[in-house]
Each structure stands twice: as structure tokens, then as C-alpha cells.
Amino acid sequence: MSSDSEHNNDDGLPLDYGFDDLPRAAAKKVAKKAAKKAAKKAAKKAAKKAAKKAAKKVAKAVEGEVKSEKADAPSAPEKETVKEVSAPAKASPSGDNEFRPTDFKGRGSHADGKETVEVVKDPDETPQERKKVTAASNDDDSDSKSEDKNDRNHNRHDGGDRSQKGDRQQQQKGKFSKNKKGGRNNQQQGGKQQGGRNNNQGNKNNNRNQKGGKQGGWRQPPPPAERDHIEGDLPAASRFSNKDACEEILKELDGSEPIDLTALYEQKVEPMAAAIRALGAELEEKCSRKQAIEALYKFAREGKRVLKDAGFLDTSDDGHGYVVHQVSNYQLKPESVYVPASLIREYGLQRGHEVEILAVAPEEGERCPSALRIVSAMGGDPVELAKITPFEDLIPYYPTERLVLETPDPGNSKKDVSMRAFDLLTPIGFGQRGLIVAPPRTGKTILLQGLANSIQQNWPEAHLIVLLIDERPEEVTDFKRRVKGEVVSSTFDETPTSHVHCAEMVCEKARRMVEQGKDVVILLDSITRLARAYNALASNSGKIMSGGIEATAMQKPKRFFGSARNIEDGGTLTIMGTALVDTGSKMDEVIFEEFKGTGNMEIHLDRELINKRIFPAINFERSGTRKEELLYHPQEMEKVYGLRRVMQGVPGVEAMEMLIKRLKVTKNNIEFLMSLK
């Protein structure tokens, strides 16, 4: 509405309102309100015009001073145009409190509801002049925005009290939206160059983040990165690009008898040093294992001697591999021979293959010898590996051949009675996947030792591996002294990476042997701690199961346990693992539940029997074997079923105590079953 219509109206009302039909009192009330609004609007316009004129005068005066100073000093440096956030600064007693743009990375300062403008920063301009220009610009923008809001509110006028209420709400809404808009603009312009109070706040936050992060405090030193425990560099892969290149290097070496590294690695320091001196190498009288091996490599390099090694292949993600040994629990050592990727691809070698190689001594700066020729793989020609069916393609079936644990020697020892109870209550077959569910201190270690000795005595052709994960070192020593089979361990003072690597090497080795048609038995203690190690190394996917287990952490331990199977017309892989329960840990309970349905045999040990010192503490009611009819003799199965029916009517502790007494008075299980009526 123009100002002419306001002054030409005799009644002092807008011409287009039309109050003819309204009552006289209501018309007067509306007329007063309209007059007040018109007066306010006129006052705002006048103030706006005065502010614009004052701002223009100040800008012209400043511009004139700048031009005159430029003319007086032509050699002055060029001015820089910057974007700054204008904010009302408090009066400072000194003139040094000027804007200094600071470059920092971040989200910018927080919004304080002030409008932003672009100004030209003049190094010679006084703070008082810059303050006047900034204030005039801010007043201009705020007046223009309030005018737009008032126009929209005035157009929505509906008459009466409803109109007044609506105008008040719209005015409040305009104020809030204006402040909100100003805050958003301030946030958007908080970039690399900011000034005023917001910039100081940003610098403060930035300095705090540099010290200790967003939550304050000094930054803690980062944890030391995992360093490779093997010193030196790997041999250059370009030297062994293909099989022919390896053969060319081998032809340049001495054709005399190769130096056997396997025999040297298995010895202790003093015998190994003596053997190296016998070869002709220079070595001090008192030396470490590392010094002895370095002297051996130097002697072989200078004399161009060929090295020979035998072990198991451990592959890496880069395609190359290493030769590891059973003596060192298949762990990677500084002296592990490097196997080029070209030789692995040439013969289709896989992790766990038993190989015999010829190697060359390491060059200066290299950490290990390099294989040049694969002499044999799995005891035969490496070319024949291509004809072997992979483990994943073999056909699994239920165990059909029984693994008898009762020893032929008659005796009444507790260990012998334990194995006889195993044969009666839970028969084990080749290819069994069994769990020994045991609370703490229930004799599971003694049972595993009895299983190992019985298997070695009754089935010497089967390859036995005792795998101890996260166990006590003294138990490892006890197993090595009591069990004649292969004992592989990773004690509790080693890292989860060591636990996982040790278990995976044993699993891959067993798979390669099963592909060859051999029978392998793995006694694992314990599968619970192995699953814990996998969980510690699992990536943080954000999906946490009950007990704090990662959703993907159980896949690999299940793959290990699921490798146990009976192969039709082939080898077998039997795994008997212990699962810990009643430890007070929710994670252990969840791990047991995850493996509960994967096995085909379970042996539960009872705490009540242990408290009464009854061994073996087998809970016959909860223990059993799936498809046990494939393992029992028909007549034996009838006797065993009758025994279970009789024991079912007696409390578990008394029934097991009665069974153990009857077993001790008989020489073998056949005599015991024949004595049953």
C-alpha cells in the first residue's frame, strides 16, 4: 500500500477495507489498529532511509580516504579480499584487538544469530570506521527482512480479533525464522577463513582437539603398531618370476651335497653351532641361535652351497609362502624358507602340503633363503597333486568304522575304566565330530590323555594330533611327556593371532592328509578358547550377539570343527574337542550353544560325580552318539540298551558309581556285557 493512499483518505483508514456492513464499535476498533500499523510502518521506512543515507556517507568517506592514501603510497602491497563474519565486538582499551583471519580445518564456529556480509579488509582502516560500516549493513538487511515479513502478515489480515492474533503469531514466527536463518548462514560460512568471536571459539575448540580430542584432555600416545617379528626384507619376487628362472639360479650353485636345514633347526643352540662349525663356517664359541644361523647363511652364500629343507607350506595373502615346521608349532620364524608364488602356481600347492625343497642362501639384506625347486609334495611327485580331489568335493557320511578305545591289556586302572565306559556309553567312530562338555576341574585333561594313549596303542596307523589352545605351559609339557603323538600348542601367554594360526595350520594339514586317504584324529582343548581367539580378531561389524560375540566370529571355528567327517572310499578326519560350561561367562555358554547342534556325539561330565571323587565323571543320561547303531555290534547293542534301561531308574550319581564298580571287577567289556542278565 502506498503512502499517498494513506494521506488522501479522509477517515484515516485504508480505502480497500470496506467496513460498511460492520457495527460502528467494531469499525472504530479496527480503524485504530490499522492506524497504529500504518504509523509503525511509516516510522520503520523513515528509519530505514536514514540508515541507508548514513551508511552511504560513511562508505564514501572511507573510500575517499583509501583512494587518497593509495595515491600517496603507490608502492603499498595489494589488498586482499576476504570473507569474514561480522560480529559486534566489545570495546577494548587498546587498539590491537583487530580481526585476524585464522585458517583451520573443521565445521566452523557455532551460529549466534548474526547476519553475514562480505567486506573488503583494508589494513589502514581504523576499527571505528569498520564498525560503522558493519553496523549499517546489518541494520539494512534486518530492516528489509522485517519489511517482507510484515507485508506477508498484513496480506493475511482477516478482520477482528482473529486478525490481531494472527498478525502477532506471524510477527513472532518472522523473528524466529530470521534468527534461524541467520544461524544457518553463519554455520555455512564457517570455513577456512573466519573472524570475530566465532573464529576465536573455533580456534579454542581446534586447539583442544589437538591436545586430547573432542572430549578434552591430553592426547594419549597411540599404541605401538604390530611390528613384523622377522627382521630384514623378503627376497625380490622378480628373481623368481617363473620356474625356468629358478632353475637358472640353481645351475649357478655348487652341485655338492645340499646342507640340511631341517636337521639343524630341530637341534638346540649348542649342538646346532657345533654342526655349523663342522661344515666349515666361522662361528664364535659362545653364540646365540640367531648368530649361528647368520653364520650358516654367510657360509652358504660365499660358497654357493645349496640348502635343503622339509616342512609344511604356509601361504600368505600375496601369493607366496613359507616352509614351517612342526617343532616350532608351525609358527613363522626368521629362518623360514621363502617359497615364490611362481612355484606355488606351477604345481597347485595349497596350505598344509608337506613339501621338500631346494633353496638358495639369502643375499645381503634379505631375511630368509628362497626355494628354487619343489623336490616332493606329500611324499610324491608334485606334478601328481593335480590329480587329487579337493577336500571340499569329497563325499562325507556317518562314521561306520568303530574306533575301539579299550586296550587289550587287562587292568583295573581308572584310565582303562574310563575308556571302557566310553566304548559302552558313547562309541566313537572314524570321522566322528564330538564334544566333551566339561565344567572346570572335572578331569577333561585326563580323559584327553587317555584317549590319545588308547588311539596310539590300538590304531598306530592313524595320525594323532593333540592341539592345545590357550592352555597352561605346564600342561603342554605334561602332554608331550605322556602322549607319543604330535602335540601342537599355543599357550595362554601368546596372542590370539598365534592361537588362530596354529589351529588353522593343523586343520589344513589334516585336510591335505585326508585327501591322500589317511586317517587323522585331532584332540582339541579347547574349542571354547579357540572361538574366543577368533572373536578377538573378528572385524567390528557392529552386530554383537549375546555374550559380546561378533556375528561373524563363529564362522571360522565352525569351519574347523566341521572339517571332521568320514569320506566315502577315502580318509577320515576325527575331531574331539572340549567345550567349557559353568564358567560364569555368558560368552562360553553362547559358544557351547553354537556348537551344540554341529557335533554328532556329546560326552557330558558331571560336577556331582567329581565332588564325590568318582572318575570318570560321565553323565550317561546326557551323553550319547548319533547313529550309534552303525558302530555297535547287534548283540552288543541289545546289551547296552538293556544296561541303559536299568540305569535310568537309578539316580545318576549312584548309577554311574555302580557301573564303575562292575567294570573294575571284569577284565574287558565283553565279559562285563555277558555278565548282564
Automatic annotation (TrEMBL):
Compositional bias annotation for Low complexity: 184-212
Region (Disordered): 1-20, 44-240
Positions annotated to bind ATP: 429-434, 441-446, 472
InterPro entries per the UniProt record, alphabetical: AAA+_ATPase, ATPase_F1/V1/A1_a/bsu_nucl-bd, NA-bd_OB-fold, P-loop_NTPase, Rho_factor_ATP-bd, Rho_RNA-bd, Term_rho
PROSITE patterns for this protein: RHO_RNA_BD
GO BP of this protein: DNA-templated transcription termination
TM helices/strands, residue ranges: none
UniProt EC number: 3.6.4.-
Ranges of compositional bias, category Basic and acidic residues: 1-10, 60-83, 97-132, 143-170
Record keywords: ATP-binding, Helicase, Hydrolase, Nucleotide-binding, RNA-binding, Transcription, Transcription regulation, Transcription termination
Pfam families registered for this protein in UniProt: ATP-synt_ab, Rho_RNA_bind
Keyword Transcription regulation in annotation: yes
GO molecular function: ATP binding; ATP-dependent activity, acting on RNA; helicase activity; hydrolase activity; RNA binding
Function comment: Facilitates transcription termination by a mechanism that involves Rho binding to the nascent RNA, activation of Rho's RNA-dependent ATPase activity, and release of the mRNA from the DNA template.
Self-association and partners: Homohexamer. The homohexamer assembles into an open ring structure.
Xref: NCBIfam families: PRK09376.1 (NF006886), rho (TIGR00767)
Annotated protein name in UniProt: Transcription termination factor Rho
